[in-house]
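User: Design a sequence. Structure:
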């Protein structure tokens, strides 16, 4: 290939991550992306990075693009709480909402196993956590609130029951709720806000501070989920922004809960963690958690790490709620970021953005592949490339020449109708 046009580190073993750990430095928040929700290497290398961040730099928790109630069940398992379950694969069956493969997979099971073993050596307050940042779990969060508050606070439990009752006519279908509120000037906003206020007014619900936090977080999820489902009718930008603002608010609450100096690792799609200001998302009035974190904590305290591949296989569905299937990922499109890296060399590699400053090909917008949970390789050119200024969107990038599909723990999904109105599948 001749002389390299910029410096990079070939990625073949965990020791090669040293250059990335050095670049992360003393950052408080490290966000690890993915170019799809169904690629094995993204999970395994994020696990390797996360292990080192927890062991060597004292990071306190991993927060992922998953629903709060399900991820909190995993959190209780890895921290060894009573009655949290024993077999990891069985606990991961809490992920029943389509697409189940995102978190119910064997790569995540390996992460959970390592977290549990790591935590077994530590006191309760020193154990690394696992949490969900997403906003979809309206009914699950409401039910958890009622179940817990019935034993601890009757007044707050009654407010939660009223909120559930308000949603009952919609048969647990956010699609029905979104459409109904678009044409009728009635919704359940008042009920969920009152429930949220009742929960927040209570100082403590018991002797378990994390369970107390869980109850308050479920109330916040329910309030923001109601807002999100109403916003779906208003267009892609408004619902996207409600979702990413909620994820940022949850991250902020988790850092506050874990105390001054706490550090967070975030696992989400590149479209969420890569600063939206340096993509065409900004033209559509959209922001994301990567941008919000940089704005709140300062760019020096946040490290955004993108992931991508040239070709391989992936798990995805042909439509919302469709059965998952293993699909081929074709060679990256001509003129894309991934094709550029392929032409540089076929090495798997770590690229630091500071080493791209003098590379003319990436100083302006370049197409950057993004595969969602819905994917059809035949139509990839019509919507799977995000125009991106790479050195500004990320602080570092992990490139893989060829990747393979993630390995799902197979189970039947529920909620297949739910995403029909979603304008984005990241």
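Assistant: Done.
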């Amino acid at each position: 290939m001749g002389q390299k046009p910029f410096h990079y580190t070939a990625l073949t073993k965990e020791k090669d991550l040293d250059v990335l750990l050095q670049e992360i430095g003393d950052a408080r928040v490290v966000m690890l992306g993915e170019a799809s929700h169904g690629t094995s290497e993204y999970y395994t290398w994020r696990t390797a990075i996360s292990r080192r961040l927890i062991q060597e730099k004292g990071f306190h928790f991993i927060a992922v693009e998953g629903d709060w109630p399900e991820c909190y069940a995993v959190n209780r398992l890895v921290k060894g709480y009573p009655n949290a379950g024993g077999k990891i694969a069985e606990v991961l069956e809490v992920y029943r909402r389509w697409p189940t493969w995102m978190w119910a997979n064997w790569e995540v099971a390996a992460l959970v196993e390592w977290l549990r073993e790591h935590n077994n050596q530590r006191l309760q307050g020193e154990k690394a956590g696992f949490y969900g940042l997403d906003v979809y779990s309206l009914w699950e969060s409401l039910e958890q609130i009622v179940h817990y508050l019935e034993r601890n606070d009757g007044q707050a439990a009654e407010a939660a029951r009223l909120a559930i009752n308000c949603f009952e006519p919609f048969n647990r279908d956010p699609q029905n709720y979104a459409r109904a509120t678009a044409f009728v000037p009635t919704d359940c906003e008042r009920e969920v806000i009152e429930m949220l206020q009742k929960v927040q007014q209570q100082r403590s619900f018991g002797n378990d501070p994390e369970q107390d936090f869980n109850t308050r977080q479920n109330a916040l999820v329910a309030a923001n989920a109601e807002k999100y489902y109403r916003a779906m009718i208003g267009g892609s930008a408004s619902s996207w922004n409600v979702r990413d603002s909620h994820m940022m608010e949850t991250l902020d609450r988790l850092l506050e809960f874990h105390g001054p100096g706490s550090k967070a690792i975030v696992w989400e799609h590149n479209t969420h963690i890569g600063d939206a200001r340096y993509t065409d998302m900004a033209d559509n009035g959209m922001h994301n958690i990567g941008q919000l974190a940089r704005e709140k904590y300062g760019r020096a305290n946040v490290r955004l790490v993108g992931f991508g591949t040239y070709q391989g296989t992936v798990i995805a569905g042909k439509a919302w709620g469709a059965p998952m299937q293993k699909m081929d990922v074709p060679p990256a499109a001509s003129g894309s970021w991934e094709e550029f890296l392929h032409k540089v060399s076929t090495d798997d590699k770590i690229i630091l953005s500071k080493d791209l400053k003098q590379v003319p090909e990436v100083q302006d917008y370049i197409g950057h592949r993004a595969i969602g949970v819905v994917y059809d390789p035949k139509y990839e050119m019509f919507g799977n490339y995000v125009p991106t200024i790479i050195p500004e969107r990320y602080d570092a990038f992990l490139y893989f020449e060829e990747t393979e599909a993630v390995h799902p723990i197979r189970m039947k999904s529920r909620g297949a109708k739910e995403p029909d109105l979603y304008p984005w599948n990241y």
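The CA atoms of residues 208 and 214 lie 10 Å apart. The first strand starts at residue 9 and ends at 10.
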